[in-house]
Specification:
elongated; mainly alpha; single chain; 9 helices; disordered C terminus; 3-stranded antiparallel β-sheet
């Protein structure tokens, strides 16, 4: 292999990376998101006997049933809608990148902005656990759905970094 081909291969490596594994990572992120919002995220026990397992979907449903539309909307927005939108946006960016189109700088900045809010609902669950444990005769702890939800956050952050680093605008500091 000549030096020119080696340099060309190295300079094109981000495009090759984007070519094959970003959709797989995003598919895994979507599967983890489904598991993270539908499986129990919180286990609450009252009087150390009666236990209830709650998922994010259960929380949204319960808040809607109580008439707390604003809280249900916030929970659904940050836990379900934004992660789905981020996965969809990354798939579109990946597809456009494969076709040689450069993503706009504002799209990459909006993905970066959404990453800052990705862990908000896990933080809220932690606060709820602290509040529940402050009451006598109640106990709460995080359940297994936290792990796939965290995996969703990590996988989408990784895919966003790969897609952004593969774009010439990101490499040259253009927007």
């Amino acid at each position: 292999m000549s030096l020119r081909r080696l340099i060309s291969a190295v300079s094109m490596s981000p495009l090759r990376i984007v070519a094959w594994h970003v959709p797989v990572v995003l598919l895994a992120a979507a599967a983890c998101l489904v598991a993270g919002v539908s499986l129990p995220m919180l286990v609450v026990r009252e009087f150390f006997v009666y236990g209830q397992k709650l998922s994010i979907l259960d929380g949204v449903s319960a808040l809607l049933g109580e008439g707390d539309w604003l809280l249900a909307g916030i929970l659904a927005l940050f836990s379900i809608a934004l992660p789905l939108a981020k996965i969809g946006t990354l798939l579109v960016l990946w597809w456009r990148r494969r076709r040689g189109q450069v993503p706009h700088g504002w799209v990459l900045k909006s993905l970066e902005w959404s990453s800052r809010w990705a862990m908000l609902d896990v933080f809220v669950v932690a606060l709820v656990i602290v509040l529940i444990n402050a009451h006598a005769f109640t106990d709460a702890h995080m359940a297994g759905a936290v792990y796939p939800f965290l995996a969703t956050v990590g996988l989408t952050a990784y895919a966003a970094r790969v897609v952004a680093s593969a774009s010439p605008a990101a490499r040259h500091g253009e927007g």
